[in-house]
Design brief:
Layout lengths: L6 E7 L2 E7 L6 E7 L41
Antiparallel strand pairs: 1-2, 2-3
């Protein structure tokens, strides 16, 4: 959606990864949880965009900032 500056956040704790979404970067809403198999080897971190190829909407995602930090807990 043009004109908005939405934020996405991924937090990992052990084998659990939680995804959050925010319109302004202050109030976060959890949008999903994923469990990584215990024997999975993480080789890198990155971002990607996916869309419905059967739709003519032409939605795109632009990532202008990416940060990887150690956290001290999950957001409320």
């Amino acid at each position: 959606m043009l004109g908005l500056d939405p934020h996405q956040r991924l937090e990992r704790r052990g084998e659990m990864v939680r995804a959050f979404y925010s319109h302004e970067g202050i109030t976060w809403t959890e949008i999903g949880t994923h469990w990584i198999p215990p024997d999975f080897q993480v080789n890198g971190v990155g971002l990607t965009n996916s869309q419905n190829f059967y739709s003519a909407s032409g939605n795109s995602a632009y990532f202008d900032y990416f940060e990887l930090t150690e956290g001290w807990g999950f957001l409320p």
